[in-house]
């Protein structure tokens, strides 16, 4: 497996560990939000609508259940995807949720930097501000 595929795989796995903890243990959103803030960029693009829906639940004082989150994503994820993530929950991951949230943030930052590097490399003049 090359580095890019490993990064994508790790990113998705961490995201699912964090999201499944919230979907099953609704109180887990508070310590996770302390680590991630409300920044959806630390999640893989496919999971960003789920995180935003969870934050929306908090704003409405509603628990981020599978049903509540599914309603809020309004078709932005494949049917059954949120339930699939909830089904990945396990007690060990839930005990380590702060660690997983921190790692998710770190991998998300790395993915963000990688994307920025690719955007800069694809420009005719890749140096910031044209400085040589």
Describe the structure.
- By secondary structure, the chain is mostly helical.
- The termini are far apart.
- Helix 1 (3-24) packs across helix 7 (97-122) and helix 3 (48-59) crosses helix 4.
- The protein has helices at residues 3-24, 29-36, 48-59, 66-73, 81-87, 91-95, 97-122.
Which geometry do the CA atoms define?
globular
**Class derived from helix and strand content:** mainly alpha
Strand content: under 5%
Instruction: Please tell me how large the radius of gyration is.
Output: 16 Å
Biggest sheet statistics: none
Features:
single chain, 132 residues, mainly alpha, globular
In short:
The chain is mainly α and 132 residues long.
Q: SSE layout and pairings?
A:
Blueprint: H1 3-24, H2 29-36, H3 48-59, H4 66-73, H5 81-87, H6 91-95, H7 97-122
Helix pairs in contact: 1-7, 2-7, 3-4
